[in-house]
Amino acid sequence: MSEELSVKTNVVVSLAYQLTVDGASADHAPTEAPLVYLQGRGNLIAGLERELEGMKVGETKSVLISPEDGYGEYDPESVIQLERSLFSDSYPVSVGGTVHLQDEANHHFEAKVVAIDDATVTVDLNHPMAGKELLFDVEIVDLREATADELEMGFVPPSGFSGGCSGCAGCSGCG
Q: I need a surface site. Which of 42, 46, 106, 124 has the fewest CB within 10 A?
């Protein structure tokens, strides 16, 4: 008889979760539509991946993830001013909204607009959950061995994935 599969590197995990931040519900994936990811490939925040290691189908757990094991500490130096002229008049820029940026290495990311004046747009490059403790209530819905393609890519592609990179922010697997 083979050993029952558990969460470990290169296993595809179907994860239901409820995320609470600052006492309020921040995100969730129900058991009917779980998050599906490849364990041990950096597809989740490090602290959560570590806490899930060894769990089996049907097991539940509450885990509190510190900022350093989640989205990092809030860095005030990541609030920067950009020249207003970088944004065309047709590009919607408003306080509280997000802007899509690209760095010199061609990485795409979003930043929150925190202030606007005639000369500058001030943006916050911190992740919205930087500096926050993250409370996850998790359930392992399903586990399976990864396919050769998933192992090669380093992630479980979404349904309809046609291969190749579409320029997604934060993607480490499609090169």
A: 106
| Residue 127: strand, helix, or coil | coil
pTM > 0.85: yes or no: no
> What one-character-per-residue DSSP string does 85-103 give?
GGS-TTS---TT-EEEEE-
Q: What's the token pair of residue 75?
A: 């860095």
* CA distance to 5, 8, 9, 58, 174, per residue, from 2 (Å): 9, 16, 18, 18, 33
172 φψ region: left (φ > 0), alpha (ψ -120 to 50), beta (else): alpha
The domains located in the chain, with CATH, are 11-71+130-153 (3.10.50.40), 76-124 (2.40.10.330)
Tokens of 124: 């916050």
**Would you state the structure tokens that stand for residue 60, as one six-digit string?**
């539940």
Contact 153, 174 (CB under 8 A): yes
Residues facing residue 138 across a β-bridge? 17, 61
* Closest alpha carbon to 49 in 4, 75, 11, 23: 11
